[in-house]
């Protein structure tokens, strides 16, 4: 592997750690309903689709109402201006759809979401088609057939799946994640925020990535 490829891979890892660290800060917010952040997987690791989940969040809005948010993170150093096509995200769509089916079988789809987080844009038609499918409207046959093939869902279930599918394709790169992390820590503490404080919370996330049994961060 060339030095450039190693550097790009590390940049992607850092993006992941810093973005996840920002999510963990939400555990400290007053009256937050976020209870647990899972790094590199989920609490439902026996369910299918686990391989595409980088971060999972668990909220408890009410005693009987829980919210689960699944995220996959994608970072690029060299292709920031080249939009993702549907085919570029086949593995992600397939993995999310498998998890969707498992939740549907358990009848707990109301408060489940699947989000693609990236600093690389998704192709405009891709995003528009997901919105249209979520509304039960018609899209070009080629796109619909492709995503039906990826998900193995019926058209009715595809509509529900697309309602659960979110796109966050305007994230800053790993450097901007550090700046955002500094700003968000500053909102929680008094005084200036130094690099050591930033690295401490990032290290917590990084340790959970390699934890074989406990990859959860709680209050």
Explain the layout of strands and helices.
Layout: H1 3-25, E1 34-39, E2 55-62, E3 65-74, H2 90-105, E4 112-118, H3 124-134, H4 141-151, H5 155-164, E5 165-168, H6 174-186, H7 195-209, E6 216-218
Parallel strand pairs: 3-4, 4-5
Antiparallel strand pairs: 1-2, 1-6, 2-3
Give an overview in words.
By secondary structure, the chain is an alpha/beta fold. The chain has 7 helices and 6 strands. The chain has helices spanning 3-25, 90-105, 124-134, 141-151, 155-164, 174-186, 195-209, and strands at 34-39, 55-62, 65-74, 112-118, 165-168, 216-218. The protein has a 6-stranded mixed sheet. Strand 3, helix 2 and strand 4 (112-118) form a beta-alpha-beta unit. The termini are far apart. The model has no long low-confidence stretch (mean pLDDT 92).
In short:
The protein is an alpha/beta fold and 219 residues long.
Low-confidence stretches: none
* Separation of the first and last Cα atoms: 39 Å
**Considering DSSP H and I runs of 4 or more, what fraction of the residues is helical?**
40-55%
Order of helices and strands: HEEEHEHHHEHHE
* Overall geometric form: globular
Profile the largest sheet: 6 strands, mixed
Q: Please tally the β strands and state the result.
A: 6
- Structural class by sheet pairing and helices: alpha/beta
Spatial strand sequence of the major β-sheet: 5-4-3-2-1-6
Question: How many H/I helices?
Answer: 7
Beta-strand content bin: 15-25%
């Amino acid at each position: 592997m060339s030095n450039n490829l190693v550097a790009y891979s590390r940049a992607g890892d850092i993006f992941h750690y810093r973005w996840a660290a920002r999510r963990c800060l939400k555990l400290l917010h007053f009256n937050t309903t976020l209870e647990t952040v899972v790094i590199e997987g989920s609490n439902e690791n026996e369910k299918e689709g686990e391989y595409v989940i980088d971060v999972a969040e668990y909220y408890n809005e009410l005693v009987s109402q829980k919210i689960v948010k699944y995220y996959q993170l994608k970072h690029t150093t060299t292709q920031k201006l080249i939009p993702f096509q549907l085919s570029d995200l086949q593995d992600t769509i397939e993995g999310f759809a498998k998890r969707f089916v498992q939740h549907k079988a358990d009848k707990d789809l109301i408060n489940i979401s699947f989000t693609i987080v990236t600093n690389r844009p998704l192709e405009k038609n891709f995003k528009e088609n997901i919105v249209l499918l979520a509304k039960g409207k018609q899209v070009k046959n080629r796109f619909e057939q492709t995503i039906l093939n990826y998900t193995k869902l019926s058209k009715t279930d595809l509509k529900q799946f697309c309602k659960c599918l979110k796109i966050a394709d305007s994230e800053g790169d790993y450097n901007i994640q550090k700046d955002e992390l500094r700003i968000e820590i500053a909102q929680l503490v008094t005084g200036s925020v130094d690099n050591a404080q930033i690295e401490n919370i990032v290290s917590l996330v990084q340790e959970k990535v390699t934890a074989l049994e406990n990859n959860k961060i709680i209050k």
